[in-house]
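Hey, can you fold this?
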Amino acid sequence: MKKVMVKSKKPLPASTVILVRDDCGPLQVYLVARSTQASFMPGNYVFPGGKVDPADRNAAYWIAAADLDHRKIIKRFGDTLQLDELVSFCITAVRETFEEVGVFLAQSPKGDYHFPEEQTAARLKGGLKKGWLRDAVEQGGWRLSFSRLFAWSHWITPKAMPLRFDTRFFVASIPPDQECSPDRNEISRGIWVKPMDALARNAAGEIPLSPPTLAILHFFRNCATVREVLQKRNRQCWGATQEPKLIFLSERPLIVMPWDPFYDYLDGREKGGKVLKWLAPGESFSRLLYHDGLWKPVKMGNGK
């Protein structure tokens, strides 16, 4: 990671979907590898998602196409955001999940989840036209499955990052009879993996995880089923906003999580202390140091 210090920009609204399943045994999550040419977290493994597009807005239009009305949407996702914002995050979640990995969180007029093969083929060939979601609603009669989405957490990219996002993370179980297929454009590959295995493979350098992905997988590590995940989600919808800090130790980036005891006192350079030890996968952490191309949990000492 190159050291880039620029003036903070307003973070762009975005949605991310943590796809989960347990029909093949213990809980698994779906991770995608971002292209090495990507402008944000290149080469890192993340959950599918992307920024909110202008077409994702217009609450009145999209609510008419969803399986929840405005009251249920507010009850499900909270009243701290305007309805138009809530709906736009949900639409982005549905749209990006299909565009990136081919999973469509919607039901056909017949009540199934089989999206037309021609649309799926077009996506893989890079020919999915702009406005495809409106066409699916207006011409195909598809009903968007907001009811499959569950609010999980709210993350904001550190102020020192050149590209910032204000991201709502959702959890969703993959619909029956659907399979994930990376688009091979923004996403180079995808894998189903158990949370603890993903943490171990990050430590081994096999699948480099982004900081929010690593933190969320750490929380999931003791969950055996989708039901357990949903039972542990924050009862206050998104929960407290997580905005890590990015500082530098001898030119190496250090992420300090909001739950770090010295979070409020750390800023800038050379104030994070020294590395005492690298933490093993599954050990609780509040700091991640970028080392040999990986974000790794560390315990710090000798200073704040």
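Oh, and this one too while you're at it.
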Amino acid sequence: MLAIAFGTRPEYIKIKPLISALEGKIPFKLLFTGQHTDLLSNIDYEGIMRLKIEDGDNRLDSIVSSVMNQSHIFEGITAVLVQGDTTSVFSVALAAFHRKIKIIHLEAGLRTYDRSNPYPEEFNRQAVSRMADMHLCPTTDTAENLKSERVQGSIHVVGNTVLDNLVHIKPTRTHDVIVTLHRRENHEKMAEWFLELDKLAEKYKDRYKFILPIHPNPNVMKHREILRHVDVSRPYPYDEFIALVAASAYVITDSGGLQEETSFMRKRSIVCRKTTERAEGLKEFSVLCPEPENLIPLFDEMIDKPEPTAECPYGDGRSAERIVDILLEEL
């Protein structure tokens, strides 16, 4: 029996196409770790296994300790599929490794080779690569990363499953600029990011509307009053948010997944990070913005460029069917 584990909203979004493709072909169970507790109300699968995270002084420690020593969740399980690089992914993979259960890593091989950026995700994914028996990579570059690291297990290039959710969407172009800022490594400078963002929104107030669905993390929320020229909104459900992105002019983000989604929609984006594990889209679709003071000049430069015409480097929206074929052959 295959167990598909997830604990966060992005993980759930990226495994949804695979869940649909697996129905009736390979028996599986879902394991929800509870890392994002607000997912509970949106998940209704028969027989889903749910864990509860017992919070302590450190949230990351709590996730790991809550997943470990729960052998009952692995009863009858012969393989575990984990997606991405969160602490849920690392914890489930480690627990499976300790039980000699086959580990399948979806979205494998992404690297910055900077343990602090992103933190703790870069460590998590490198550690999972050392344990995994099957690596499902989004691009040839990510597959080459794993080959150069001489990891064990089979390596497959399948594209990114998040794009499977977008094949029915026809992008348009309005005057909206969608902004997301939430990453842990940006928390210490969130006030500076918001100050520069507000200056940018004021500068272009007659040309663009800047929309920020604000992240509920207290380290982000406490600075929201800085944004006087930005339309600060509640977080949107995924379908509503993707509709906003599909109709946007540009995107400013520190997200990983949005770099893939905007590329698929041929949107340009500014990535508010020092480095990215999704280097394939740089220059053609995205540009790094390592410091807040870089934001305005980079936006000034971006809006003078024509719309991208290159193909999305992260996949074609048919990843799930490729993965099912691989799993049918290898499991």
